[in-house]
Design brief:
By secondary structure, the chain is an alpha+beta fold. The protein has a six-stranded mixed beta sheet, sandwiched between helices. The chain has a six-stranded mixed beta sheet with strand order 28-27-35-36-37-38, with no helix packed on it. α14 packs across α15, α17 packs antiparallel against α20 (591-605) and α20 packs antiparallel against α21. The longest helix has 43 residues, at 40-82.
Length: 1083
Amino acid sequence: MRVRRLSAILGASLILGGCFMLYLIMDLTFLPQEIHSESHNKWAQLEDRLNQLEDDLRRHHDTVGQLKHSIKDMVGEGLRQESLSPNRTTSSPRMDLLSCGLQVSTPPHTDVQVGHQHLLLIINEEIFQLWVIVFLQLLELYKQLKFDNLDGGAWKQGWNIEYSQHSWNPHKKLKVFVVPHSHNDPGWIKTYEDYYHSQTRNILNNMIKKLREDDRRKFIWAETSYLALWWDEISQEEKAQAKQLFGNGNMEVLCYLSGRLLANGQLEVVMGGWVMNDEANTDYYSILTQMIEGHQWLQNNMDYTPRSSWSIDPFGESPSMAFLVKRMGLENLVIQRVHYSVKKMLARSKNLEFLWRQTWDGSGSTDLLTHMMPFYSYDVPHTCGPDPKVCCQFDFRRLPGYGMACPWRTPPQVITEHNVAHRAEMLLDQYRKKAQLYRTNVVLAPLGDDFRYDQASEWDAQFNNYQRIFDYLNTNPTLNVEAQFGTLSDFFTAVREEVSPEQFPTLSGDFFTYADRDDHYWSGYYTSRPFYKRLDRVLMGYLRWVWDLAGYSQGHYYNLVGSRSAEIVFGLAWSSRPSFASWLLAPETGLTKLLSDARRSLSLFQHHDGVTGTARDYVVEDYAKKLHDAIRGSQHIIQQSVYALLTRNKFTHTFSAFDILKRVASSQDLPDSEFTYFDLDDVRKHHYSIPEKTVLAFGPDMEAHTVVLFNSLTWQRKELVTVRVSTAYVKVPYPQYIISPTWQCKELVTVTNSDGDLVPSQTSPVFLRSGSVADSHYDIMFIGEVPPLGLATYRIHAVHPGDKHMGSSTFASLKILNMLGDIPKIEGFQNIEVIPDGKEFSISSDQISAVFTAQGLLKAVTLKSSGTTFPVHVDLARYSARPGKERSGAYLFLPDGQAVMLTLDRPLVMVVEGPLLAQVRVLLPEVQHYITLYNTPGVDSLGLEVNNIVDITDHNNYEFIMRISTNIQNNEDFFTDLNNMQVGELVMKTPTNNQNNKNLFTDLNMQMICQHAVLVFQMIRRKHFTKLPLQANYYPLPGAVFIEDDETRLTILTAQPLGVAALKPGQVEVGPGLERCMPADTN
């Protein structure tokens, strides 16, 4: 009714206005000129009436605009409510619109598959294009995609794009932003430093020189780690000039640095992280670490904050990254490596630009405006438009004589006044075709590739030739185009000026597993070089989640068992010792530098050719050496900080910087920052060495050792502690000292115990990798208890075999299956049972009982609380690479068929059982497989711990996997975590009241119970698709995976990133290759 009323008012106003104007014209025509000149008042009245009519028309226009927005809001809200469930199909809004009395037409090309409706709204014969947006969910999209990989012609993975010349006019021009860039990998074919010295330094030096030559030139840069190397080489005078320019924005002063260029918008730092991190294998803490390192460096040295993120080379994209950069204040994101079929579908529906939203977000607070590149790669042949043969002709680094050529054998031409018209219009045709894939008339055309612009000649060739093209395009109004160099922020600013972000579709989900062509799925790198993936997590643990630390002090060994980091314990020492803080932070001690170096080494390895394991062998070795040095540095920080905490009352003087210099020189009143007070219980002799435990040696001169346990979590912990000793006969009293949970306290709290009050312990033999038992080495185990953010000390004493205190320590029983020969003799272990012919057996704790086959593989699990038994079969298997030129490698997983089970021909099986721990070890030629069951009051007793030490160096094209089979009816659905990221708030929950979880095998990934607190982690639903090849059904496994039905859930937690698949209902397969031996290199 409101529309009809407005229409009537407008029509009547137009009729009355027209009649009035006709009357005036006729009246003035018949009046004498002198009478007309005397009628000034009439003209004033006419002007007033015309102004009133214009105001009426303007109000009418505003009313119609409000009506349009109201309709879009009404329809959008209705569809948004429908789309809150990612699995729900959105119904058509046609009836709601018709009920408003509006004429609506729905074009036949409506794409219901992705929940998108393109509507034409007709009001008073004026056509308005409405994009009604709903929720796009990638899992639902995968269900509907055919993945048919048809040949699209020039755009092989797309189609022949057509457009109308009338799509643009002087009021609606095509805006093209050519964005020069250079992608610099901090390690890949060369090491980080080798790349810098051979190429990157030249790029950065040329960048400043060449951009200063013309203010119209632009450039973007991503990797802050290279900026830091460059910055360290330039002079103090140049740094001072740059800081002055950053501070006052003086455009007149010329300098050799980037201050002026950043200030006037010629140079933009995008993303700003230390590296462009991988998004599949990385932990969110490591992502944050490398982003903080980069952003802090930019702030401290350039007073610069990035606005847009640039993720063009990671092999798949995670929503965790979008979430984090959004929270960091970045406004825009560009991504590239997405499955070609997904790109094609989003391009057809013009949804390549979207608001990326977290799956759990119902309010839109996590929305991040994201631009997806549509074509095969980020190099020049695949960025100007759909035809790489044409685009390659506009990569002027490939001019004859420049050392590069176009694979399509049509080289670029230097742009002159004679060919500029033809060449410019050829390029414009590509820009126009690319614009058909997006909703706006703003085109992003990146101009660069790996390590481009390292020669001054390329800067001249690219910028000069493109500028001639721009000049021609911009001075020919019939072409209706504005082309220029731009930064990423220039592009997104133009996009936002044309279309508000709310008008873009909303998308949730992730973009794994990536395929760039055919069946080349990049799932191999999920597991490539797993040893170094584990080393990455170990360093992250020292910087954040340190579990096992040990040392000695003046003849006394210390074992620090905690759950946080060098950063945390350093912070505790600094905060709790104000008098000591100045020493800890002093540059002379080197502790802060060690911490910074460790953070930067961890950050560097997050590069998408670092933690992925896809760099060359010697580059991976260089990464590993950096990680190893960082681990040793972190250990030094920890032992120094713990010494500060344990000796907090020894130093009471607050030292000035002068005092520190003087006292360090004279070694007075201060700890020795170079002295090792503790040796941590994680010995890694080399960057390629498997860690070893420190052996606490006892003898006549060393009858006791002190063990220190550290807990950096905010709740009390009771967990099993294992210490390796040189004698089987020891006793463990209750802790002597505890630093209270409030670490600001000034005094140690003494725990008084009656004589003989000992901690129950278990003594177990130590097995060597060969399967034999170590002489004079034993593992002593006891339950350690540490308050929140606290330290506790235990004293381990050696005793004689007949000592009365030995009653508190229990020797574990030992069974050896499938062994022929004499019974081994192990001091202290009297009851050793040898079973020549293996048979089924079981181990148990107070909560769980596990049954094993005669070959030592898990068969079933019983939860004692309910008495329910679950079949849980563990199998070991392998994949082989398919033959031919295209084979599995560091990136790709291309198996030759289904996995083949390993032959287990009477393997040696060792079973250790005691009151605190039971363990089954299976010794195979390629792998040591062992499962541990803890019997403690802590969370470590809620599941089974599985370890595989794999050695397949004698094999080629061999990928080892572990498969777990159950009777869980999960309908081919399973869930994996996203970058180990925790989201949501800590909530309180009483486990005994959770009836739905009573039959859970373990639930550690979705909730970590401590004092009834539940920590929720970001998980994403996966599905096995039979229409896709096996390798496409492997997904990243950063930390957790589970399958479930209405009654049962099986959860697997990993110590390092791996790959995972659920190829059959009830089955989980961890690989591809818990270890991989792939001679082919697919990079």
